Every structure is written in structure tokens, then in C-alpha cells.
Amino acid sequence: MGEGCSIETMVYPCPPPDRLEPLWRGLEDRCDAGVFRSWAWIGCVLDVFAPRALVVEARCAGRVVGLALVGLGKAAFPGGRPRGHLGETGLTEHDRIMIEYNGVLAEPGWAAQVSRAGLDAVLNAGSPRCGELRLSGVDGQWFDLCRHAGVDWRLLRLRQGAPYADLRAMDATDPLRSLSKNSREQIRRSIRRFEDIGPVGLSRAESIGQSLEWFRELEFLHTASWARRGNAGAFGGKDFAAFHRRLIARTFDQGVVDLLRLSAGKTVLGYLYNLRWHDRVYAYQSGFTHADDPRWRPGLVAHLLAMRRYGNEKISVYHFLAGDARYKQSLSNGSDTLYWMAAYRSSLLRRIEDLARRFLRPEAASGPPTI
Fold first, then answer.
1. Residue 75 belongs to domain with CATH number
2. Do 35 and 176 fall into the same domain?
3. Cα Rg, the chain, nearest whole Å
4. The pTM is what?
5. 100: helix, coil or strand?
């Protein structure tokens, strides 16, 4: 369990997906690190984007105990070493798929050792593979991991809360009863408004084809909603939709993707695109119809009905992912904190760069955050 055995760490160019898959899946079967570290997600990243990347492999007594994918992005300055990106490609147009709950894939009890060894291997003081390692959507343990690995870090953006609903702590028969009085009333008013149109229901896509069709309709509704706010939304780049269409086609039969449709009678009110992994669900994306009516809250109703359904299916946690949207606060009973940061070896050039950054962007300074 991470004691009494020294880790041997290897870093090598990422092989073709069909060669890496058995190794990754073999370790994954002994772990439960969440959907964003699963082969379902990582394999799709490699398949769709074919990034220039490294694999970090950690072994103990010949047994693989940890793996990580490190995409190689542009160097910070001409002639410098590339930036590494944990679990990502290193290219902004591809990384809009937004990884969260990021980290290494490691056997239980080995995560800290594997993470520190990976940091040391990628940022090796003698011959570093990368000028820095970008860590997107990681938890607060990475500050201590960096300190123990002897590397510095800086925040790339402000930390974000990631609300979730622990369904085990909610009313066993209906999570609505566990919400605040105001949230209950909003949802009940919306349901009554929708019942004026017809019976309200949440249905599940039953095939890959139906999932892809609903995903296209979700994209249309999502984009229209964000356009009203003067924003392109998640689908602003073609790579976002292409990745998820491939993810749906690859993993629907494994039960990873879950497309849900909210309807009132024959009227479609919107869609949820969720990711399932073991006993957790990640509410990844959505698209809903719009009306100038304060009672028109299809998002609240859809998530509530989804939570009710998942509770009956023995799902433990419903993750709303990073963001401070009001509906997430209304439906959650807990929150994680995620960070976007960069780890790097200290040098004179980096110290000058940090001083300039502290002056120009105080929020991105390297002082320890309150965790």
C-alpha cells in the first residue's frame, strides 16, 4: 500500500492507443479514480486528438501502480522545453472539453507516491522533459505534493467550487424533500407550469443512434441559450462536439454516457448529457428551451428528476462540476474545491517571471491559498 517498496518511474512517448489500452485498463480495474481518469475518457482523447504526449508509468516490484498522460504544449518561450499538461493535450482548442477531478491513475494507497514521483520525473532538475506541468481541475492535495516533490507552483486562475449532491444524505424516497424551502417551491411551481402542457417525464436514450440525435438537439438548445447572452457556449469550437460524439459512440454500451430528455407531454423541454462511473454521475452538459416566464425552470426540474432516478439506481453522488451557477447551489448539499495550477522547478528566470506575475496579476501569485 505504498510502503516498503521504492517506485521505479518511466517516462516515454505515448504509444498508439491500442497498445496503451491494456496497460491502462489493467490498472483501472484496481482503481476508482473517476470518469476523467478512465480509459473511456483518456482513450477518447488519444483517439480523437492524437496529441503529442508522454506517458508516466510507475512500478513497484514490477507491478504497475500508477499511470498518467501528459500532453505536450507550446514552450513558454522560444527554445524552451514544452509545457506538460496532466490528462490534457496541451492545445487550447482541444482542451475545451474541460477535464475535472484530474490526477494520476493510481492503485489505492499509492496516489501520493506516484504523483510525487511523476512530478520529479517530468520536471527532473537535471534533464526535465517539460518546462512546467499544468495541472487543471485538481484537488488541494497537489500543493502538498508539489512541496514534497521540491517544486514550486502558481495558480493559473482562481479556485472554483464544484458542488455535488450526496444522494445518500438526502431523503431516501425523494431528494426534493431535502432541499431548501425556496428551492422546493421553485421546482414545484415549474412542474405545475409544465403540467399545463402535459405530463412531465424524464426519459433515457436507449441506443447510440438516439443518444447522438439527442446530443445534436442538446447542442442546438445550448448554443441558442448562450447566444442570447452573447456567448458561443461550450460548442463554440468544432472539436468539443466531435470529441463527445466519439465518446458517445465508444462508451454508450459500457454505460458511461447517459442522455436524458425532459418533456411535458409531447413538448421537449431540454436535455441532460451526463457521465456515469461506478456509483457516481457527473452532470456534464445540458440544453433547455427558453421562455420569458419566471416559472420556466427546466434545468432545475431535469436535474431533480435525474437525482430521483439515480437515487433509485443506487448512485451515491451527483456531481454538478465546477462553477457557481445558482441551480448548482440550490440542488447540492456539498462542494469540492478544484484548482488550475502550474508546477515547475525554480530558476532565476522563473523567479523573475514570478515577480512580474505577482505585480501584474496578484490573483495568480504563488502564495499558499486557503484550502
1. 3.40.630.30
2. no
3. 22
4. 0.92
5. coil
On whether the CB atoms of residues 263 and 201 are closer than 8 A, the answer is yes
Q: What is the residue range of 349's domain?
A: 8-161+338-364
Q: CA end-to-end span of the chain, whole Å? A: 26
Which residue is it, cell 438516439?
A: 210
List, for residues 2-54, the tens digit of each pLDDT value.
Answer: 556 789 999 999 999 999 999 999 999 999 899 999 999 999 999 999 999 99
pLDDT at site 353: 54
261: left (phi over 0), alpha (psi -120 to 50) or beta: beta
Q: Are 218 and 273 in contact (CB under 8 A)?
A: yes
CB-based contact 33:78 (threshold 8 Å): no
Cell numbers of 24, please? 491502462
Tell whether 105 and 205 lie within a shared domain: no
Asked whether the beta carbons of 122 and 81 are under 8 A apart, the reply is: no
Cell readout for 13 is: 512517448
**CA-to-CA dists, residue 275 to 67, 177, 204, 232, angstroms:** 22, 25, 13, 23
- Is 84 found in the same domain as 176? no
Asked if 146 and 344 touch (Cβ cutoff 8 Å), the reply is no
Same domain? For 126 and 201 the reply is: no
Residue 1 lies in a domain: no
277-320 pLDDT tens trace: 999 999 999 999 999 999 999 999 999 999 999 999 999 999 99
- Whether 231 and 90 map to the same domain: the answer is no
Alpha-carbon dihedral sign for residues 134, 139, 144, 148: negative
Decide: 92 and 85 in contact? Cβ < 8 Å: no
Instruction: Name the β-bridge partners of 72.
Output: 84
Calculated CA dihedral for residues 6, 72, 232, 273, nearest 10 degrees? -40
One domain for residues 234 and 125: no
Q: Is residue 175 located within the same domain as residue 258? A: yes
List the alpha helices (DSSP H) in the chain: 17-28, 39-49, 111-122, 141-149, 181-195, 208-227, 238-251, 298-312, 326-331, 348-360
